[in-house]
């Protein structure tokens, strides 16, 4: 499990702006270490965001996504909404964090 995600969510006129920073090395499987061996692929494959228990964002990532991915998206919502952000990577590691819309 990775480090906690940094989640910011603010509502303006019925639209919630969500910003998420995920800490993850996101190895593509194409880089080599100091001895010349390939570093195995290890990246987030799926991201899901729920607000009040309903899906508001889903994504599938591939090897081209950079280290420590940053997401920014908007959805129709309100202050006080409970957000649950979850991801799964190639190794089966999972991370979930919560935030409240301000």
TrEMBL record:
<protein>
    <submittedName>
        <fullName>Sulfur-oxidizing protein SoxZ</fullName>
    </submittedName>
</protein>
<dbReference type="InterPro" id="IPR030995">
    <property type="entry name" value="SoxZ"/>
</dbReference>
<dbReference type="InterPro" id="IPR014880">
    <property type="entry name" value="SoxZ_dom"/>
</dbReference>
<dbReference type="InterPro" id="IPR014756">
    <property type="entry name" value="Ig_E-set"/>
</dbReference>
<dbReference type="Pfam" id="PF08770">
    <property type="entry name" value="SoxZ"/>
</dbReference>
<dbReference type="InterPro" id="IPR013783">
    <property type="entry name" value="Ig-like_fold"/>
</dbReference>
<feature type="domain" description="Sulphur oxidation protein SoxZ">
    <location>
        <begin position="7"/>
        <end position="99"/>
    </location>
</feature>
């Amino acid at each position: 499990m990775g480090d906690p995600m940094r989640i910011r969510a603010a509502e303006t006129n019925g639209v919630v702006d969500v910003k998420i920073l995920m800490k993850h090395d996101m190895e593509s499987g194409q880089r080599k270490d100091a001895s010349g061996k390939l570093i195995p692929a290890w990246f987030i494959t799926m991201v899901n965001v729920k607000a009040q228990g309903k899906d508001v964002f889903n994504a599938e990532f591939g090897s081209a996504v950079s280290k420590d991915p940053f997401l920014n998206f908007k959805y129709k919502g309100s202050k006080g909404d409970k957000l649950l952000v979850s991801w799964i990577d190639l190794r089966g590691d999972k991370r979930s964090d919560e935030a409240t819309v301000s």
